[in-house]
């Protein structure tokens, strides 16, 4: 199965994706993590992405899609893939559909949408910023910009998957294990 783990910044996608990938032996692909690795290693892609990330804006689709496809091709024999933080625009969702169909004869099977209120997200991200070392977690203005980008460009993707009957809403508040169990029950 290919699962899109969906939700705003701070919803818990990364935490839960790591646990789910381990339990079900899936590959975890986080575009945010791959961008951060490229920035750390000072690659050409990292240099291009860092200016957008520092402002809390989305990195342009063409850079993001190419990078995601390369990462997915590195793991051709996975049980399945959990996409974390991708797709974030309609263009990315369409590119993912074409990629999975044309190169793997597969599709997105489910989109699990973690539901958390905006004010709770800001609280969580500011708390995370104390230890994450992520500059985009450390400033409330940048956090609000990330949430605005989500509401403007990414939230509409819910309709895209709802129209295909693939969207499942998951309550994203509560204990980590509680939320994990809600998500894991969708992997059956
Ligand atoms: P994340 O780790 O998912 O919170 O992503 C951190 C930042 O990386 C975002 O604020 C964007 O600047 C960038 N980013 C991650 N994934 C994407 C994506 N699918 N499309 C565009 N930008 C992305």
Topology pattern, helix = H, strand = E: EHEHHHEHEHHHEH
CATH topology name, in short, is: Rossmann fold
Fourth-level CATH superfamily: P-loop containing nucleotide triphosphate hydrolases
Q: What average pLDDT do the residues reach?
A: 96
Q: Can you summarize the main beta sheet?
A: 5 strands, parallel
What fraction of residues sit in β-strands? 5-15%
Unreliable stretches (pLDDT < 50, length at least 5) are none
- The tally of helices reads 9
Helix percent reads: 55-70%
Distinct ligands, ions and cofactors found in the model: adenosine monophosphate
Please name the CATH architecture: 3-Layer(aba) Sandwich
Describe the structure.
The chain has 188 residues and is α/β, with parallel strands linked by helices. The protein has one domain: P-loop containing nucleotide triphosphate hydrolases (Rossmann fold), CATH 3.40.50.300. Helix content is 57%, strand content 13%. The chain is built from 9 helices and 5 strands; from the N terminus they run E-H-E-H-H-H-E-H-E-H-H-H-E-H. A 5-stranded parallel sheet has the order 2-3-1-4-5, with helices on both faces. Helix 6 crosses helix 7 (140-154). The chain binds adenosine monophosphate. Adenosine monophosphate binds at residues 9, 31-32, 35, 52-53, 56-59, 64, 85-86, 88, 92, 136, 146. The site of adenosine monophosphate (AMP) has 17 residues, from helix 2 and helix 3.
């Amino acid at each position: 199965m290919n699962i899109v783990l969906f939700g705003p910044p701070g919803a818990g996608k990364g935490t839960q994706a790591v646990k789910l990938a381990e339990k079900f032996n899936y590959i975890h692909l986080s575009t945010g993590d791959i961008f951060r690795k490229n920035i750390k290693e000072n690659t050409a892609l990292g240099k291009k992405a860092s200016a957008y990330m520092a402002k809390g804006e989305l990195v342009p689709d063409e850079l993001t899609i190419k990078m995601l496809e390369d990462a997915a091709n590195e793991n051709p024999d996975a049980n399945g893939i959990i996409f974390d933080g991708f797709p974030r625009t309609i263009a990315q969702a369409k590119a993912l559909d074409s990629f999975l169909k044309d190169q793997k004869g597969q599709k997105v099977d489910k989109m699990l949408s973690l539901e958390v209120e905006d004010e709770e997200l800001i609280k969580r991200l500011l708390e995370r910023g104390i230890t994450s070392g992520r500059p985009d977690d450390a400033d409330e203005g940048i956090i609000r910009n990330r949430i605005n980008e989500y509401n403007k460009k990414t939230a509409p993707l819910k309709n895209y998957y709802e129209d295909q009957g693939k969207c499942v809403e998951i309550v994203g508040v509560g204990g980590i294990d509680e939320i994990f169990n809600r998500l894991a029950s969708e992997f059956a």
